[in-house]
Design goal:
Helices cover 41% and strands 19% of the residues. The chain has 236 residues and is α/β, with parallel strands linked by helices.
Length: 236
């Protein structure tokens, strides 16, 4: 394996599968199986999962809801997804811990950096829930922050497309895919990889991001092996 410790960023929409919302049991099992395979190979895996399949803070705010309240609801949605992923992984026989940025002792441990690292060293999958614990920050920013805190080798962002394009490949058949792109170019050209706060945090701390298609079976393993799939966002 090229990478020994990774942070896997999953969108909430990924868990919804073809349903469009909620949690698709088949998709949850598929994701869990791929994470389990990495775990068996000795890779230390941390996960940040979004909550967009249940509630998206920005969308709520555009409909008149207070932005802070809407974001806190989104954080609760990430906890629901994290617990679902934990249950699925443990049914695969993988010891898993959910660490929440908001204290809720009955369902998750409170996030403490040293505790998270210790869980990873003990070969437990760690799922970071409730974002950063603050409104106005996305789960992309959470992924960038936690990856740097735990000393991950790379952030792997699983998406619906096979990399980063100069324009939306879904609506533009002439879109050009990047094999590698710099953080500066992402920010300068407004390319939607992660939000600008997350990109800046990764750029300042030399934390590479791999964007790849998670719906192709085995892609997570290929990415960890160092195969050239997707797009690498890097400072170099």
């Amino acid at each position: 394996m090229k990478f020994k410790r990774i942070l896997l960023k999953l969108s909430g929409e990924a868990l919804a599968g073809t349903q469009g919302s909620g949690i698709d049991g088949d998709m949850l099992s598929k994701i869990s199986s791929e994470i389990t395979e990495l775990h068996k190979l000795g890779v230390e895996v941390a996960v940040v999962v979004g909550g967009g399949n249940i509630h998206r803070g920005v969308a709520g705010a555009t409909k008149g809801m207070d932005r802070a309240s809407s974001d806190y609801m989104g954080m609760m949605a990430t906890v629901i997804n994290s617990l679902a992923l934990q249950d699925s992984l443990e049914r695969e026989g993988v010891y898993t811990r959910v660490l929440s940025a908001i204290e809720m002792n009955q369902v998750a441990e409170l996030y403490i950096r040293r505790k998270a690292i210790r869980h990873l060293e003990k070969k437990r999958v760690v799922i970071f829930a409730a974002g950063t614990g603050n409104p106005y920050f996305t789960t992309d920013t959470t992924a960038a922050l936690r990856a740097n805190e735990i000393g991950a080798d790379i952030i792997m962002k699983a998406t619906k497309v096979d990399g980063v394009y100069d324009k939306d490949p879904m609506t533009n058949p002439d879109a050009v895919k990047y094999d590698k792109i710099s953080f500066i170019d992402v920010l300068k050209n407004g390319i939607k990889v992660m939000d600008s706060v997350a990109i800046s945090l990764c750029m300042d701390n030399d934390m590479d991001i791999m964007i790849f298609n998670m719906f192709e079976a085995g892609n997570i393993k290929r990415a960890v092996e160092g195969q050239e799939i997707g797009t690498l966002v890097t400072k170099k």
